[in-house]
Write a structure and sequence with these properties.
Layout: E1 5-13, H1 19-27, E2 45-53, E3 56-63, H2 71-86, E4 94-102, H3 110-121, E5 126-131, H4 138-152, E6 159-161, E7 167-168, E8 174-175, H5 180-224, H6 232-270, H7 296-322, H8 329-380, H9 384-387
Parallel strand pairs: 1-3, 1-4, 4-5, 5-6
Antiparallel strand pairs: 2-3, 7-8
Helix pairs in contact: 5-6, 5-8, 7-8
């Protein structure tokens, strides 16, 4: 690896679980001040840089420890920070979130389980470190590991017992720090898992957002178009032309975004490889393809003609009623009813046009997701051991 590679790591946990001590142990220098059971880290999130070697740096984002009665505020801070990074380029995502849980200190809390589930559902790579694990609380650490696996579905190899400081037990036995290299290996392993799992998740999430936005934009346009009784073909032709122009631009934008995001991920993760990965996201259809054309008449000609006929008939009824010689209360009611039905029919016509648009968008999304799934299948076929550059485990 000749270029400098950086990755971001978020470390979270309750006050007193030993986050600061763990950081100091893992990275071999005092990056954090340590204390005993008190909020050492101020409220907020604080970055630190660690030089793993000359070509690989880790940006560590340390969070303030959760204090009693502040779980909602703490969870929002964590989730917001993750989402903020998810909107940036792939090398600025959190490739690992280290969740520290003490081997002692009572059972797991519901909020700990809940935030782990939420982070895992969004394809974040979680490393749970069960801190302060020694002979005395080994059973408690094992029980917590089993609970985490059962309640959250986290992979077993991503739950690691560790001890960050030298301990002298009452018996006189010394417990040395352990778990560092296993933790570092998992961090680098998670770089690859981020590529394999989170890249497709983030792309799909952004495509959903973009296609929802274009759907809403086209619906607003449909609401504003006039429906003339005497220019039926012209009205539909003009509306269809504008809708397809907007839709083509949106499909072009989605394709461009997906290729850019995927290629950035490929370029970044190829820096970690000893074997160059050649996987390409290449759409078999272009935005000019008839597949992406929204045609109001083709699929719903009979329904649309029926709606226009209904509107025309109502218009004629209103016209005839308005020119009757005698104006009675019943006549006024009938005219008002026909006018109401007239506008309702125009509204139903526009609803039909929106339905045509929604069906076309759903068809396009199915195609886009199929293309993405095909690429994900290729990613999942990569032999991790063939391409993965393992950290130096010496020392």
């Amino acid at each position: 690896m000749t270029d400098l590679i950086t990755t971001n790591i978020l470390i979270i946990g309750k006050t007193g679980v030993g986050k600061s001590s763990l950081l100091n142990y893992i990275f071999g220098k005092e990056v954090e001040k340590t204390g005993t059971g008190k909020p050492v880290t101020e409220k907020g999130i604080f970055p630190h840089e660690f030089e793993y070697d000359s070509s690989f740096h880790l940006n560590i984002y340390d969070t303030w420890g959760l204090e009693p009665d502040k779980s909602d505020e703490w969870e929002k801070l964590i989730v917001d920070e993750v989402h903020t990074h998810d909107k940036l380029r792939v090398n600025e995502w959190f490739s690992t979130i280290i969740f520290c849980i003490s081997a002692g200190g009572g059972p797991l809390h519901d909020f700990e389980i809940n935030i782990l589930r939420k982070l895992l559902q969004e394809e974040n790579q979680i490393l749970v470190v069960i801190t302060k694990t020694d002979d005395k609380n080994q059973k408690s650490a094992e029980d917590k590991k089993a609970t985490l696996i059962r309640e959250t579905g986290i992979d077993e190899h991503c739950v690691i017992p560790a001890n960050s400081v030298n301990k002298k037990l009452i018996s006189g036995e010394c417990i040395k720090p352990y778990g560092r290299m296993q933790i570092l290996s998992c961090i680098i392993h998670n770089l690859w898992m981020t590529y394999k799992r989170k890249t497709p998740y983030i792309i799909r999430k952004n495509v959903d957002y973009r296609m929802t936005s274009v759907r809403e934009t086209i619906h607003i346009f449909i609401n504003k178009i006039p429906i003339s009784l005497f220019q039926r073909n012209l009205d539909l032709e003009i509306a269809e032309k504008h809708v397809n122009e907007m839709y083509k631009d949106s499909i072009d934008s989605v394709f461009s975004y997906m290729k850019t995001a995927f290629n950035e991920a490929i370029d970044y993760f190829n820096m970690l490889s000893k074997k160059y990965i050649q996987i390409e996201l290449d759409f078999r259809k272009s935005s000019d393809d008839e597949f992406f054309k929204i045609d109001f008449d083709k699929d719903y000609l009979t329904e649309i003609d029926s709606k226009f006929a209904e509107i025309s008939a109502l218009h004629n009824d209103i016209y005839q009623l308005c020119f009757k010689e005698q104006v009675t209360r019943e006549l006024i009611k009938e005219v008002l009813l026909k006018i109401k039905m007239f506008f309702q029919s125009k509204k139903r016509l526009k609803a039909d046009l929106k339905r045509i648009i929604d069906n076309s968008i759903n068809k396009s999304l199915n195609y886009i997701y199929q293309e993405l799934d095909d690429v994900v299948e290729k990613i999942n076929d990569i032999d991790f051991d063939e391409v993965y550059i393992k950290p130096d485990t010496a020392g």
